[in-house]
Design brief:
It is built from twelve helices and twelve strands. It is an alpha/beta fold and 328 residues long. It has three domains: 44 residues, 434 Repressor (Amino-terminal Domain); 125 residues, Response regulator (Rossmann fold, 3-Layer(aba) Sandwich), CATH 3.40.50.2300; 140 residues, Rossmann fold. The strands form two sheets. Strands 2-1-3-4-5-11 form a six-stranded parallel sheet, sandwiched between helices. Strands 7-6-8-9-10-12 form a six-stranded mixed sheet, with helices on both faces. It is elongated. The chain starts with a helix and ends in an 8-residue tail after the last strand. Keywords: DNA-binding, Repressor, Transcription, Transcription regulation. GO terms for molecular function: DNA binding. InterPro entries: HTH_LacI, LacI/GalR-like_sensor, Lambda_DNA-bd_dom_sf, Peripla_BP_I. This is LacI family DNA-binding transcriptional regulator.
Length: 328
């Protein structure tokens, strides 16, 4: 089995230089870094992550706990987190809690025992302020802010405001909002608050429909949307709390011979890939997922380096207008 000395000899550098490349520590020229990496590949050398974490009192890994990996929003978030982590010399441990508190707790304990550099928590079944993570920084991403924890949210209220104002300016007078999960408190609820405020300010009739946790976990809103559109007649504008819901609104409307945008105008939220793949394409609120991922990694890295950071950050959003609200 190859050793760090073997790698150094093949690369023509010192073992100290190899160590600095492995640990991403200090200045190393790109040419030297490439030589060391090529030597490790040629020899099949694999650094001992456990030994490194024991030496440094932390590993170069970041734990990421999400409630779903198949949901378009979390899939995009995970991809961006992995990319930003790699840029900063980290790897991620991906944990899918499936909205189960017990699994989330187990993953948090696993991250602690593996001495991760930080934890990014996107799943909210366990109150993180009740969990002792020691000196491991925890970033709450699109979760309610908590004292002592780093937090990142998008401006959900502004997003709901822009979506609702756009529907009203497009001529809608009877609005429906597919909101969040019944009896769940989350930052996304501010989209609903904005929807109510703007409708009231403009004397526009509105309806709100929430869904149960099973519907959210299964990500199948079709029957729920169909039942709602049959129950509430003459809706001419819909604000969906995610692009995934908005895409299924299009499916239901096609079955019911309701034309979008001629009969109903539709706005989603997130701006994930599915919003550009439907017919019509979906007008949506762009959530800065790439920027949120970049900031989450930077916060953990800054905490490790004892750099002072803002504990709570709300990032701006923007409305992306596509065909679901444009009459041709």
């Amino acid at each position: 089995m190859a050793t760090i000395v073997d790698v150094a000899k093949l690369a023509g550098v010192t073992p100290t230089t190899v160590s600095r490349v492995i640990n991403n520590r200090g200045y190393i020229s790109e040419k030297t870094r490439n030589k060391v990496n090529e030597a490790m590949d040629q020899l099949g050398y694999q650094p001992n992550e456990i030994a490194r974490s024991l030496t440094k009192q932390k590993s170069n890994t970041i734990g990421v706990i999400v409630p779903h990996i198949s949901h378009p929003y979390f899939a995009k978030l995970i991809s961006n987190l992995e990319n930003e982590a790699s840029k900063n010399g980290y790897k991620i441990i991906l944990c899918n809690s499936k909205e189960k508190a017990e699994k989330e707790k187990q993953y948090l304990d696993m991250c602690k025992s593996n001495r991760v550099a930080g934890i990014i928590l996107c799943s909210g079944n366990v109150e993180s302020n009740k969990i002792n993570t020691g000196n491991i920084p925890v970033v709450l991403l699109e979760k309610n802010f908590e004292d002592g924890k780093l937090g990142i949210q998008c401006d959900n209220y502004q997003g709901g405001k822009l979506a609702t104002e756009h529907l009203i300016k497009s001529g809608c007078k009877r609005l429906l909002h597919f909101s969040g999960v019944i009896d769940e408190d989350m930052p996304a609820d501010n989209r609903e608050k904005a929807f109510i405020d703007i409708c009231n300010e403009n004397n526009v009739e509105y309806f709100i429909r929430k869904y149960d946790i099973d519907t959210y976990n299964e990500m199948n809103y079709y029957g729920y949307i169909k039942e709602t559109l049959k129950e509430i007649e003459n809706i001419d504008g819909i604000f969906a709390s995610s692009d995934l819901i908005a895409a299924q609104v299009i499916q239901v409307c096609n079955e019911l011979n309701i034309r979008i945008p001629q009969d109903i105008k539709l706005v989603g939220f997130d701006d994930v890939e599915i919003a550009k793949l439907t017919t019509p394409t979906i007008t949506t609120v762009h959530q800065p997922i790439k920027e949120m991922a970049k900031l989450a990694i930077e916060l953990i890295d800054s905490k490790y380096k004892n750099i002072e950071v803002n504990d709570q950050t709300i990032l701006p959003i923007e409305l992306i207008v596509r065909n679901s609200t444009l009459n041709k």
